[in-house]
Design a protein that fits this description.
Shape: globular
Distance between the termini: 53 Å
Structural class: alpha+beta
Number of domains: 3
CATH topology of the largest domain: Deoxyribonuclease I, Chain A
Radius of gyration: 29 Å
Helix content: 25-40%
Length: about 525
Amino acid sequence: QAEPLGRALARIATNAAKGHSKAGKKGKKSKKARAEGGAEGEAAVPAVRLFSRDGAAVAEEVPNASAWQDGAVLHIGDARYRVERNPPALTELRLPRSLLAGFPVCPKVSAEFAAPQHCLFRWFREQRPAGGGDAAGEAWVETAAAERVFTPSNALVGLRLKLRCTPGDGEQRYGPAREVESSGPVEAGPGACTFDARHLYTKKVCGHGSVRAVSYNILADTYAQTEFSRTVLYPYCAPYALEIDYRQNLLKKELAGYSADLICLQEVDKSVFVDSLAPALDAFGLEGLFRIKEKQHEGLATFYRRDKFSLLSQHDIAFSEALLSEPLHKELCEQLAKYPLVQEKVLQRSSVLQVSVLQSTSDPPRKLCVANTHLYWHPKGGNIRLIQIAVAMSHIKHVACDLYPNIPVIFCGDFNSTPSSGTYSFISSGGIAEDHEDWVSNGEEERCSMTLSHPFKLLSACGEPAYTNYVGGFHGCLDYIFIDKNALEVEQVIPLPSHEEITTHQALPSVSHPSDHIALICDLKWK
């Protein structure tokens, strides 16, 4: 940007001459071109100048940043080029691999000097071949849809889709359009899904005094697609329904239909966040934050509604790292050192805690500390989970009491803990005794006993459902949305699917439910 214009023009002149001489060396016209260019292949260097909009030549010492203005004209020999400065341009336009009738198709749109919400979208469908034979050449018929998200009807089953997108910057400037065709045709959807009835309660976004929160372990592809998952964990699930493209269709429709203000997800594959969920939920007004688990390809995602909240700060941690390095946990770390076996297990885990501080856009003094986690999974790991949750609560206290005094907390996650566990009891009561049975959850040799406490008054907003996880060999309540009783109250809990719906295909996941967990949804109100 700081380079003087003269240097840039000289470079353009040299390149133009090179291009000319290269063209001259090709094909049968080479002799003639050489003759024009003088010496062997040396093309004459054209005059290159830049003129501003009002027709004055721009001086060569002017830096590039101010020389190249919209509407300026570049002369290269006799050719004239109009200058467009930072025109809107698409850098990526992709359609999902799997398209299902009745499920929203959300393209991935990346652009420079443009924003997806200002781009123009035109959707086309393949022409059905007349008389059932193969169509000669491809004919496309424009659909009535001109929105960023397109939901194909059953009439489109068997046909491919095409999207034409024109990048725009919201100031009536548009760049060159690009087109993308779907790799396969629209397929028939599964019919009724477990979340359809729940959507009847969540048609509209709730008012400014309320917050609709969702917590959901969406089952990472990393775990769903293993041989072990297909044969041992979920043998009852049709193999195609475990595939990521299929599950993403269901998931995007499910999440979009909840009209949520806050969504905390666990087991989110990095590629699923980047290529699928973030672009889709962005189209529905939600901004996403992602935190990967070290050593793994999945992590946590928190989404918040852009017109209700803005992000003030992020305070994510990995439990093992924080325990070792942050002075905040020094005392706990010293206690833990007395139990080397347990300490080693705790430090081996890659579990993380995502903490985001949000500010209300309509009432800026109103702030919210949103925490999201996925604790260690092993049935006998109660003692490990207690250490993890102790680190989590100290960290949340640091954010919601020290950094932002007295802001309300919403703590979502898959805690891998039933209501009878030490972890649940610690979160809801504020303390745990050193003789709690969970300190010996993996036998005497891994006992680690300590007294823990935290200052919050937390309540499970959705209560204690019979189960939030339902697989062949287990069902139980493992997921919670804990809220600050002092500042928030529950307005409504969206009912979970009926037992009949959950067990229609034996257990979860299934063709009509994309995860082995069930989403928790509640509307909260500021007190």
